[in-house]
Specification:
With about 450 residues, the chain is mainly beta. It has 2 domains: about 325 residues, Alpha-Beta Complex (paralog of FGE (formylglycine-generating enzyme)); about 100 residues, no CATH class. The chain is built from 5 helices and 21 strands. A hairpin with a 3-residue loop joins β14 and β15. The longest helix has 15 residues. It is globular and about 70 Å long.
Length: about 450
């Protein structure tokens, strides 16, 4: 009888720093500000996860580079974000929020992050969900989304606003902390931080931020700095860079009964209704009249936002809008994903031999009728878990479980002895593993 040891695998090898936003209702909008934020209404959202910080340039580059080598393409502008200064020694110039990315770049990057981690992507090129969206800039209709996939995606503007409000469901404050803004709380125009008129490192406002007198510091230079994570734990949800959301913008959307529908993702338009000429290349689109083009929503304001401008773009309820083809150094992203799981090894490729399959990261295997798998190098194994991102493998040869994933491989985790082992099959030593702590070799399989 097999006994599976239960371990929180997210703690074993985490490559995401996300916060879970629990299901429930909250108030979205503001009746006392701009007309497109009204009426304030109650909205119920299912549980989802959202990045604790804005995606950094470093994280973007790593996934982007992998993506390009795997059939993805991105806009030329995304190669030139505004980076952090070299004089600030407490963070790397790439530990600042990614920017200068358009909306399509973000969808493709989220898909690439999903595939990189072994999750099922969310965005596809048609409603059959047969082709992953990896290149180009064209209309992505809501029917092109795999809503059952566990992969990464842009948040809806409703998800963003619920996250920004920090779990406060019965009030609609202007900011996560309540009312009023000063330089010690967020990065905005002339707020007094050392990076004024530019981005700050993600999570900079952690209780050690330095603020000096500036036009809009509003007394922040005189206050003892505090950690400005909101009540759910998010950093920079206000200011630094604004953040792309999934939704098309409709100024009257909140008056539409569909806006109060559970898990709404905003208005859905056909390609014709967007007014966008998708046949134009990037250079041509800069020269055409876009007055009839629909826009996408971005939220949170950024380092160029002035709290004294009309409407105050830094307020939680403010709905920023921009063309999806626009690359601006004031807009970045924070990715989300649903609390869902994909079928085990959904990404296996069928071979022209009965019940034989191939995983591009774990090799060839024969799938029996009794869940057991005969692996080319390990012999009989018993896999369980989700997708290619959370896999427990029982090795019959060793009579023991190991955990691994597409991202972690060739490393496997042994929960019995709390150690990591490296599969040496890639070097020709099939069935052998090397212990990380002392480089000792152990035999775990006897495949072909």
């Amino acid at each position: 009888m097999l006994v599976l040891l239960y371990v929180h695998t997210s703690a074993l090898f985490s490559y995401e720093n996300m916060i879970t936003v629990q299901e429930g209702a909250f108030y979205i909008g503001d009746d006392n500000a701009l007309t497109d934020e009204s009426p304030k209404h109650t909205l119920y959202l299912s549980t989802f996860k959202l990045d604790k910080t804005e995606v950094t340039i470093s994280r973007w580059n790593q996934i982007r580079d992998w993506a390009i080598s795997n059939g993805y393409s991105f806009s030329e502008s995304q190669y030139y974000p505004i980076k952090g200064p070299t004089w600030f020694s407490l963070s790397d110039p790439l530990d600042y929020p990614m920017n200068n990315i358009n909306w399509y770049d973000c969808l493709k990057w989220c898909n690439a992050r999903s595939e990189f981690m072994g999750r099922k992507p969310v965005y596809y090129t048609d409603s059959s969900l047969s082709q992953v969206f990896r290149s180009g800039e064209f209309h992505i209709h809501s029917s092109f989304l795999n809503t059952d996939a566990s992969g990464y995606r842009l948040p809806s503007e409703a998800e963003w606003e619920k996250s920004a409000r920090g779990g406060v469901t019965n009030l609609t404050h202007d900011y996560p902390w309540g009312y009023g803004i000063s330089g010690d709380l967020a990065n905005y125009k002339l707020s007094g931080d050392p990076f004024d008129d530019s981005t700050t490192p993600v999570g900079y406002f952690n209780g050690f931020q330095q603020i000096t007198l500036a036009s809009n510091s509003n007394g922040g230079e005189n206050r003892s700095p505090e950690n400005t994570q909101n009540k759910l734990g998010f950093y920079d949800i206000i200011g630094n860079v604004s953040e792309w959301c999934w939704d098309w913008y409709d100024s009257a959307w909140y008056s539409n009964p569909l806006a109060a529908k559970k898990d709404t993702t905003g208005p859905s338009f056909t390609e014709e209704e967007t007014g966008i000429n998708y046949s134009l290349d990037t250079s041509e689109s800069l020269l055409v009249d876009k007055s009839n083009w629909m826009k996408k929503v971005h939220r949170g304001g950024g380092y160029k936002s002035d709290p004294y401008d009309e409407g105050d773009t830094l307020r939680i309820a403010y709905r920023g809008v921009e063309f999806p083809t626009s690359n601006l150094r004031t807009i970045g992203l924070r990715s989300a994903r649903g609390e869902k799981n994909d079928p085990l090894w959904f990404d296996k490729n069928t071979l022209p031999f009965s019940q034989w399959y191939h995983l591009d990261w774990y090799g060839y295997f024969y799938e029996s009728n009794f869940t057991w798998v005969f692996h080319e190098y390990f012999g009989w194994i018993y896999p369980t878990g989700n997708g290619s991102y959370d896999n427990w493998i029982y090795f019959h040869y060793k009579k023991q479980w190991l955990w691994t994933s597409k991202f972690a491989y060739p490393w496997h985790y042994d929960p019995v002895e709390s150690r990591w082992l490296k599969d040496l099959s890639t070097t020709g030593d099939h069935g052998w593993f090397e212990v990380h702590s002392d480089s000792a070799r152990e035999k775990w399989g006897d495949g072909i």
